Amino acid sequence: MTAVFPLMDQDKLKELYDRYADAIYRYLLRLSGSEDLAFDLMQESFLRADRYHSENIQNERAWLYRIAYHVFLADRRKSPPVGSVPDMSSIPEAHSFTGDLHWQMTRAAIERRLHAQDPALARMFILRLDHDFKHDEIARIMELSERTVGRCFEKIRRILLKEFKNDLNLEHRES
To answer: 155-173: buried (b, 16+ CB within 10 Å) or exposed (e) per residue?
Structure first.
């Protein structure tokens, strides 16, 4: 027998959808690399938010990202990705500096590098850069301790420094 949960007030659900749907979609698009899959996962995320809402949610934004993250993970368990990591430079970003081709190429290289080492690092990078989440919010979304998130960002920082150092060395050699 399944439990019946009362659905969220539909005005509240519409308000959450209007406020966060685009950001959740972009986040899922960056994780999945597929527009269709990201849209489906976004819809599933809001369906789950409707079903499993609670009156004592402290941070709606972090709560929705956490739901989206778990929907993404559940989808990956059902059908693991085949092939290589998608080209992240073709996926829209939230910041205004997206038109800078050099930034897009550098960012794509960083995300591929992070994803190759640990996909969770790439997800943290996306949450921080695209959505301005703080460490404590990322910890809640990914169900990690703040200390673990801090260590992961130290690892990301080392990877970034190495990536930029390599980039500068290449520019120096070309001149």
So the answer is: ebeebbeeeeeeeeeeeee
- Say if residues 125 and 111 touch (Cβ distance below 8 Å): yes
Q: Are 69 and 77 in contact (CB under 8 A)?
A: no
Given the structure tokens 């070309």, which residue do they identify? 174
- Residue 71: predicted pLDDT: 93
Are 168 and 162 within 8 A, CB to CB? no
Residue pLDDT, tens place only, 13-29: 888 899 999 999 999 98
Query: Is there a domain that residue 22 lies in?
Result: yes
Using only C-alpha atoms, what is the Rg of the chain? 18
Q: What share of the chain is helix, strand, coil (3-state, %, to 5)?
A: 75, 0, 25
Q: What is the Cα–Cα distance from 12 to 124, expressed in whole angstroms?
A: 28
The beta-strand segments (E) located in 28-136 are none
Other C-beta atoms closer than 10 Å to the C-beta of 28 total 26
Structural domain span for residue 154 = 98-175
Q: Residue 114 corresponds to which tokens in the numbers above?
A: 């992070």
Please state the pTM of the whole predicted model.
Answer: 0.56
Q: Both 76 and 140 in a single domain? A: no
